[in-house]
Amino acid sequence: MQSNERAVMRVLNGEKLERPPIWMMRQAGRYLPEYRAERAKSPNFLDFCYNTDLATEVTLQPIRRYGFDAAILFSDIFVVPDALGYPVRFEEGRGPVLEPLSNEVVGRLDQAKVEGHLEPVIATVKRLRAELPDETTLLGFCGAPWTVACYSVAGHTTQDQTAARIGSYSDPALLQAFIDELVEASISYLVNQIDAGADALQIFDTWAGVLDDIGFKLWCLEPTRKVVAGVKALRPDAKIIGFPKASSSRLELYVRETGVDAVGLDWTVPAEVAQKIQQIVPVQGNMDPMRLVAGGTALEEGIDYCLDIFSKGPHIFNLGHGVVPQTSPEHVAQMVKRVKGL
Ligand code: CP3
């Protein structure tokens, strides 16, 4: 099968399909018992990401169980700063812990180490393309520079990225220096994913929505535009999905300024805005993941609403953000069936 015949790729190429293809952000994850079993084999989360056998296995799990139309490479956004030599680790029950951003730590980053460090992830992409069903699209990804930088400035997960916003105002030169390093490393990482067999790429900008107008331009649009342009300069056919979360009112600007081929929508994007965007580029989304936790009529209503509002153009069914650990695997099966009209 030619990669452009895969359902997700057809939509990314602008086709509207009778039934939208479906995949789910964070589809390989803790809501699945088979994921938890593999995860237990590698207590260190980053080691888990760099273990080609384990990462391949957990990427395939949701494809086997549900027959999703796309597999997303199992990895994390923090493998890029880790590859640059930025101190990062995962703590049980706490999530990522990073050394707070400083001129000293940025000065120590080394682009020359990135490719070699990320080789096991690229090996996973190759294995996946060989092992996935022919009709399944393989998605690669990276974190958008701003979202990666948010965790670096704060050193850990926060609710509204107060520390990162203050840092962006008080020392923009430091943030810019780090963002520039992330842009360069992300371009080479994404190009290597394409060369290893990824059909398309997604850039996760989970924290785009906390920025003001000036910040959005500097820290979301500009770095994303550079990553997209950098990848496309080397691989002109690469398809890129942008996901600027909580950026409803700036989606059109985002699409216009960054050059992404498609855009992921979170669940707060109003239908009128979503439909307007869908006339410009294919869209992906956007059911609230909490409907998937609730199940029942709330789930059915959410699915049908999404199918209805996006029925006039190219659409990939997805959640508005990642599936959460307390989700019942049975609800996911019900969602896939309903989206496929079974
Ligand atoms: O299935 C997939 O979607 C592919 C794998 C994937 C993971 N993280 C695995 C993961 C992807 C695409 C990501 C992206 C990611 N990672 C983002 C952007 C998207 C989003 O969800 O907002 C961000 C911000 C991160 C950073 C991150 N990784 C945090 C804050 C945490 C800790 C919180 C949490 O959910 O545990 C992680 C860990 C992580 N990444 C897990 C998984 C499955 C859970 C870790 C575990 O198994 O213990």
Topology of this protein?
Layout lengths: L6 H6 L20 H7 L5 H6 L1 H15 L3 E3 L6 H6 L3 E4 L3 E4 L4 H5 L6 H4 L1 H13 L5 E7 L1 H10 L7 H9 L1 H25 L3 E6 L7 H22 L4 E6 L6 H8 L3 E3 L6 H8 L4 E5 L1 H6 L1 H14 L5 E5 L9 H11 L3
Parallel strand pairs: 1-4, 4-5, 5-6, 6-7, 7-8, 8-9
Antiparallel strand pairs: 2-3
The structure holds coproporphyrinogen III.
Q: How many β-strand runs?
A: 9
**CATH top level assignment:** Alpha Beta
Rg of Cα set: 19 Å
Q: Assign the CATH topology.
A: TIM Barrel
- Range of helix content: 40-55%
Note the overall shape.
globular
State the order of secondary-structure elements, H for helix, E for strand.
HHHHEHEEHHHEHHHEHEHEHEHHEH
Count up the helices: 17
Give the termini distance in whole angstroms.
Answer: 25 Å
Provide a descriptive summary of the structure in words.
This protein is of the alpha/beta class and 342 residues long. The protein has a single domain (17-266), classed as Alpha-Beta Barrel (TIM Barrel), CATH 3.20.20.210. The protein is built from 17 helices and nine strands. The chain has helices spanning 7-12, 33-39, 45-50, 52-66, 79-84, 103-107, 114-117, 119-131, 145-154, 162-170, 172-196, 213-234, 251-258, 271-278, 289-294, 296-309, 329-339; strands spanning 70-72, 88-91, 95-98, 137-143, 200-205, 239-244, 262-264, 283-287, 315-319. Helix 2 (33-39) runs antiparallel to helix 4 (52-66) and helix 9 packs across helix 10. The longest helix is centred in the middle third of the chain and has 25 residues, at 172-196. The chain is globular, with a radius of gyration of 19 Å. The mean pLDDT is 97. Bound molecules: coproporphyrinogen III (CP3). The site of coproporphyrinogen III has 22 residues, from strand 3 and strand 4. Coproporphyrinogen III (CP3) binds at residues 25-30, 39, 45, 72, 74-77, 95-96, 141, 143, 147, 157, 204, 206, 322.
